[in-house]
Amino acid sequence: MVWLALLFFLSLCALLFISAIQRLVANKEFLVNKKEIPGEIMEDDCVPGDEYFAAMNKKHGDVFNVTFLGETYTVLTGKKGIDFFKQNERKYFQVKGSSPESWDELYGTSNPILTVPETVHKLFRRACTNAMMSMKAIESFYPVVNKILEDFVLSWEGQEKIHSHQIAKIAFAISWVWVFGDRGEKSSDMFDLFRVFVQALSAPVNTELGTPYGDGLDARRKIVDHFKEIYEHPPTDKIPHLYKTFHEYIEQEDKRGTPKYEKRMSDLLVGVLFAAYHAISMSLNGALWELGTNEALQKNLREEFCTQLEKYKTGTETPEKCTSHLTLHDLSKLPLCNNFVMEVLRLYNAGFGIYRLTIADFEIDGYTVPKGSKAFIFCGYDHYNVMHPWNFDENRDHESYQWEPFGVGSRSCMGQKFSLMEIKSFIFIIVTRFHFKISDVIPRAFPEFEIDGDIQISPVRT
């Protein structure tokens, strides 16, 4: 009897233990990773670029950890990672609190593009739909873009070379006018400040002046001081601009002249100008780099542009003298140019990844990612999952892979139509007026791809 009682007692204890474990697992209070997420620490403690993430994807697969700027990010990429994010964005992810903490000081905590909750961003996106995303808005700003481009290009006439710095300046000038409707006397000063600001985004935190991060914070303070002058004297409606839309959006809650209005407007303007200038500058520099190293490509593009011009069709223009304007309708009928731009954006784009914070535990590819983890979604992974990924090929079949240069999910780039129009207009105007040749020039890497040096130019024959 004693042995039977002991056996019964032990059996009961075992059943109670198994039942308790099952309850813990069911309530997710007892999570055990099936395997540890592989990862690495960035040795130079900076924000990595797309080449690094592509190499890590090849090495570790679609889920891995990367530590940079003192924080660890779980990277989701590949088909598994991107599909999981697209299907579960609202269930498992939020934007607020996702980017490096050091960025809060730079971007601002009320930035409607990068830092605010999804509900607030939705309102902002809805307010900007007509001003930023509609074809009517693109059509109204198209002549303005062409005028800015022509002003810059005309200033190159008579020169044998230009500095690549001019390309970034073009990108900023267009972004500035897009927002404020006026080139303004201070836009040149602001360009220099934003260049300093951009470098701070990938730098370790050190607030002392003379360091990239400290100088970036100082540049931001000066940028905001310039904005305050604009708040007192808002731009007119002489040409289309976004400032009025932004003002109306913020004034729904905070009246102009209040500290909260200035804070929200400053964060918004910093975010929009950075996103527009930085992304376009990278792409324009990439386009010029590929054109300047391929004279045959310049010639082929020049001939394609000219066939779309009405004057050329009537015999009054030739590919050697091709200076009329393309219409927006013309831009859609340029197969070589369209493919060239897609290839530029495959390799030279700032939207290759997005930050998120996990709001619930989830499993992917055999790993458990806990709630509260910072995640980086490398949505540009498939750009490098092609034949000879690091070779530029203007004839590449872009239907054969997932082309995602403007990000994925609910916060994909609002200005993508504008960006495509601007890049194509830039290529048309420079190719039909000049031959370019790049030699002994080394491109600078992420965070701001830029050709650094002189570019030889000569006018197209007239």
Helix content bin = 40-55%
Main beta sheet strand tally, sense and closure: 6 strands, mixed
Helix/strand order, N-terminal first: HEHEEHEHHHEHHHHHHHHHEEEEHEEEE
- Computed Rg: 26 Å
Enumerate how many helices there are, as a single number: 16
Q: How are strands sequenced across the largest beta sheet? A: 1-2-3-9-6-4
- The structure class reads alpha+beta
Q: List the uncertain runs.
A: 28-33
Q: How are the SSEs ordered, and which strands pair?
A:
Elements (H helix, E strand, L loop, with lengths): L1 H25 L12 E3 L8 H11 L2 E6 L2 E6 L1 H15 E2 L7 H6 L10 H16 L1 H20 L6 E3 L1 H16 L6 H14 L11 H21 L10 H9 L7 H34 L2 H13 L2 H4 L14 H4 L3 H13 L6 E5 L3 E3 L2 E3 L4 E4 L38 H16 L2 E4 L4 E3 L5 E3 L1 E6 L3
Parallel strand pairs: 1-2, 3-9
Antiparallel strand pairs: 2-3, 4-6, 5-13, 6-9, 7-8, 10-13, 11-12
Helix pairs in contact: 5-6, 6-7, 6-16, 7-11, 8-9, 9-11, 10-11, 11-15, 11-16
Task: Give a written overview of the molecule.
Helix content is 51%, strand content 11%. The chain has 16 helices and 13 strands. The strands form four sheets. It has a six-stranded mixed beta sheet with strand order 1-2-3-9-6-4. A three-stranded antiparallel beta sheet has the order 5-13-10. A two-stranded antiparallel ribbon has the order 7-8. Strand 11 and strand 12 form a beta hairpin. Helix 10 packs antiparallel against helix 11. About 1% of the residues have low confidence.
